[in-house]
Amino acid sequence: MFAQASSPIAIPAIGLTLWERKPPAPIERAVSMIETVHAPGFGPPLHRHPETEVFRVLRGRYVMKGGLRVFEAKEGDVITVPGGVAHAFMNAGDEPASQLVLIMPALDVDGFFRGLADVMKSGKPETRALAEFGKQWNVDFLGPPLKRGESLAAPL
Fold first, then answer.
1. I need a surface site. Which of 2, 10, 87, 153 has the fewest CB within 10 A?
2. CA 135 remoteness from chain centre
């Protein structure tokens, strides 16, 4: 689907497989791009970081939380999460769901997600280990991933 290909990075603890589609250029560090696939019922822990993310749902549907907003995003929807806003999301369907994600400014996606995979290689890591990893990348892990059955009405 995209010109730039990379070897996939898998993080089974959060049901994630991703591909880096546009690594940051050596001079221009404006944007990174990844394509993600999430298993049903999975998503990342509640977190925040300084980078802005723009999500385009390619397939499936997600429950997303960002700041005080909680909503469903479906195929074709585009969602922007400004840097510094706490957010989480979960594949709300019964089949794998995927997104294209722009990260601005650019992030060393390969380094971050391979490091996260290592921290999560035995399943859910200890809170302290995840926090220590996050410090290296200026990411605050604030809580667990969303779970099926959580109300769309519940704010962060």
1. 153
2. 17
Distance of CA 142 to the CA centre of its chain: 14
Of 58, 41, 54, the C-alpha closest to 80 is: 54
Evaluate whether 55 touches 91 at the Cβ level (below 8 Å): no
Alpha carbon distance 134, 141 (integer Å): 7
Q: Crossing angle, helix 127-137 and helix 109-119, to 10 degrees?
A: 170
Torsion of CA 126, 34, 71, 38, to 10 degrees: -60
Closest CA to 29 of 84, 85, 109: 109
Element (DSSP H or E) covering residue 58: strand 52-59
Q: How far is it, in rounded angstroms, from Cα 137 to Cα 145?
A: 19
| pLDDT at residue 5 greater than cutoff 70 | no
| pTM: predicted TM-score of the whole model, two decimal places | 0.87
Percent of the chain with pLDDT over 90: 74
Which residue(s) pair with 48 in the sheet? 140
